[in-house]
Every structure is written in C-alpha cells, then in structure tokens.
Amino acid sequence: MSEWITLLGFSDQGWGISLLKGMLVTLQISIGAFIVGLVIGVLTALAKLHGSQSMKVIARGYTTVCRAVPELLLILLLYYSGSHGINILLQALGFPEVDIGGVPVAIVVLGLVQGAYASEIIRSSILAVPHGQIEAATCMGMTRQRVFWRMTLPMMAPFALSGLANLWVSLVKDSALISVVGTNELLYNAKQAAGSTHSYLTFFLAAAALYYVINLVSNAALRRVELRFRRWMP
Amino acid sequence: MNWVFEYSDLLIKGFLTTLELISFSLVIGFVCAIGVALCRVSETRWLAWPANAFTSVIRGTPLLVQIYIVYFGLGSIFAHMPIIRSSFIWPYLRDGFWYMVFALVLSFAAYVGEVVRGGLVGVPKGELEAAKAIGMSPYKVMLRIRLPRALYQVLPTLAGESVMLLKSTALASTIAVVDLLGAANEVRSMTFEVYQPLILVAIIYIVLTLIIEQFFGRLERRIPVRR
Question: What is the spatial distance between Cα A181 and Cα A175, in angstroms, rounded to a whole number?
C-alpha cells in the first residue's frame, strides 16, 4: 500500500504530477478535437442535406470510410500523412520545415475521425426539426442564414445533444489511441511510468481511474446541459 | 505495389488472425453479454449491482487502457507465478492473442449487455403476463418469451456493435499480435512504404464491415415479424 502511495504520489519518486499533466493534455486534445469534429460535422451534415450531387457523394464517402476503418489505423495514416503534408505545404510556401508533432496534429486527426460521427448525429437531428416551422420562418421573410441560426439550430439542439454527449465520451476514450503515435497524454505518461518502474498494473489502473473520473464528471455535467436545452420541450 | 506479393503470406496470416479475433470475441462476448444483461435486470441486488458497476467501468474507460491492464498488468502477475509458468497454459498466456480476446470479450459483453438490457426492459408487459397466465414458470418465461423478444429487437444495434468490435480488433497490433494492422505495420517497417500498406488494410476493413452489415441484414430478414 505504501509502495502505491510513493509510486502515484507527488514526491520526486512519484508519478502523480506526470499523470495529472497527461490528464490535462488528454482534456486539451479531447476538447480541441470535439470542436474540430463539431465544425466538420456541421459542414458535412449541411453538404449531405443541401449540397450539390458531388458534395453529397464526397460527404457520404467520408462518413463511410471514417466509420468503417479502425480509428487506430486512421490515426496512424493521418498522423504521418498530416504532418508530412503540412511540411510539404510549408516548403512550397518557402518556410522551413517544422516538427508539428503532438497536440495540434492529434486534435485535427481525432477531429476528422469524430466529424464523421458528428455529421450523422447533426444530420438526423436537423431532419427531426418539424418542416412546418422552417416554412413558417421562410414565410415571415427570414433569410436562409437567419432561419438556420434562429430556428433550426435551437430546435435541433436537444436532439443533437444526447448524441453529442455520447460522442464526447467516446472521444475521450479514443484520445487514448494518440498515445500510440506518441503525444504525452495520459496513457502515454502512464506507459512511461509503468515501463520505468515495472509496476504495470498500478499505473494502468491509475490511468483507467482518471479516464473514468473524466467520464463520470462529464456525464453528470452533460446531463445538466441537456436538461437546460430541453427546457422548452413538453 | 510489388510488396503485396512479396509479403502476401504475412498479410494473409494477419487477415486470418483478425478473423479469429473477431469470431472468438463475438461468440464468447455475446454469451457473456446475455449473462450481464440478465444480471442487470435481475431483482437480486447482489447480481444487479456488480453487473451495473462492470458495465459502467468498462464503458467509461478506453479499451486500449483495458488491453494494457489485461496484457501488461495480468501478464506480469502471471509471469511471477511459478504454478502458472510451469503449467500447460503458460504457452497460451505468453501470447498476446488470448489477452486480446479476453479484453474484447469484456468490452463486447459490457456494450452489448447494455443493448440487450434495453431490449429486455422493452418487452411489452402484456406478453410476459400472458405467458405467466398460461402457467409458465418465471424461468420459462425468460427463456421462451422475454429473451427471444429482446434479442430480436437488438439485432439492428448488434450489427453496429459488431462493426465496432471489428474496429477494436485493430488494437491487437499494440500488444504485438500480428493482426491485419500489425501485418501492415511490419510490411511498412520492412519496405519503407509509409502509406500504401495502411491504405490496403483500410480497404480490407471496409470490405469486412460491408460483409458484417450484409450478414446482419440477412439475419434481420429472417426474424418472424408481422408487418
């Protein structure tokens, strides 16, 4: 027991600070990726609903591929090609190569993967908005943008929110996959701690506990937000 | 693209490993899922509570962490036990494959257990009462009415969960099991082709997903429903 306290504690021999720092990076990656995924999801959903034929095909292809291919594979593929591609772009523009590892690439990669799921959630919740309401707003003379901001968005929010809450939880879990390509997030730090102390079980259980805490807290918070957005519903 | 022929043995071996992983964990996991669901709807508190806790913990933590706990954590404990080291199961316990199956079974049992529980709760009460009125024992009501009804209802969701399971098998490559992705990674390190092996494997995963969806679509059409 005392061994546990030294290992997980905050002293010089302990890895507590390292784990908590990792947890912070995990939260950073997850929040960033959630925002990126949301933006991509909204754009893809709009492309699927209102886009031209070619845009629809592209959007559908993107969703299918991202939902059928293992996340780990996509992360490997996008992580290397992403940093490679950005460097090629920078070179073409005449800038020196930079090492864009870590958090920003992780955010973009996870955002791209989650955007596919987000787009399906958003598409189905836009479809759940009664069509008569949209027609009424158009009759009032609202422009399409205004209809979207004032009518569609607030009315679809409760429908979308429960799906997005699930997406957030699975995003936090998927962010652990980033440890495979080596960004010092929670699981990566736990792996390092486990490797150098050989107490594998202790550190992986600690990492699991921290992930579980993130999910429990966000579940509770999201339930409140959902209630707030649902308040106009019967 | 010459590497495809050069390393076809490795890729086929990886493909078969992925198939083995998914079929073992699908079958065992589904049986466990029914067990978890039955425990969760049970009225006995000491059955329901652990099952609920199990589901919550497994669904609340990343699968990769669970795999590490099982493989590195349990693996290192087993390695320190002379009884296990000298027994006949040690060759199996040294290989990552069975740890992966175990982790996948746990995960599938939790996720599908949740779905099956939803199905069990959703069975119309009238049907259960009718079965009881005919004189069926509670055991028989569960076996002949409630469980089959629930399983029919969850079949469409099960297709999605099986696709998730297929995608999860790719994590086996992180604990040195040469599955499809593991094979692709080995090819990459030997040929210095960065993207092509990954893209090839991605296409195979998409095809496998389509096959799973087809399979469940067929199964769904065989359900006796009155339309």
Answer: 11
Q: How does pLDDT run across B145-182, given as a tens digit for each residue?
A: 999 988 888 888 888 899 999 999 999 998 888 999 99
pTM of the shown model? 0.88
| Cβ-nearest to B202 among A67, A73, A177 | A73
Domain boundaries, chain B: 3-221
pLDDT of the residue at B96? 84
Residue B101 above 70 pLDDT?
yes
A88 touches chain B (CB under 8 A): no
Query: Which CATH number belongs to the domain containing residue A166 in this structure?
Result: 1.10.3720.10
Which one of A77, A172, A212 has the shortest CB-CB distance to B202?
A77
ipTM, two decimals: 0.87
Homologous superfamily (CATH) for B3-221: MetI-like (1.10.3720.10)
Within a domain: A234: no
- Chain A contact set for B76 (CB, 8 A): 198, 200-201
At B54, phi and psi to the nearest 5?
-55, -50
- B120 with B86: CB under 8 angstroms? no
For position A195, what pLDDT does the model report?
Answer: 85
Q: How confident is the model at residue B40 (pLDDT cuts 50, 70, 90)?
A: very high
Question: Rounded to a whole number, what is the distance in Å from the CA of B47 to chain A's nearest CA?
Answer: 22
Contact in structure between B162 and B26 (CB atoms under 8 Å) = yes
Number of domains in chain A: 1
Contact residues, chain A, for B209 at CB < 8 Å: 68
| Cα distance between residue B96 and residue B86, in whole Å | 18
Instruction: Kindly state whether residue A98 falls inside one of the protein's structural domains.
Output: yes
Domain of residue A223, residue span: 2-229
* A23 is a domain residue: yes
Q: Does A185 touch chain B (CB under 8 A)?
A: no
Mean pLDDT across B62-91: 82
| Total Cβ atoms within 10 A of residue A19 | 22
- Chain B residues inside the 8 Å CB shell of A191: 68
Nearest to A76 by CA among A180, A184, A187: A180
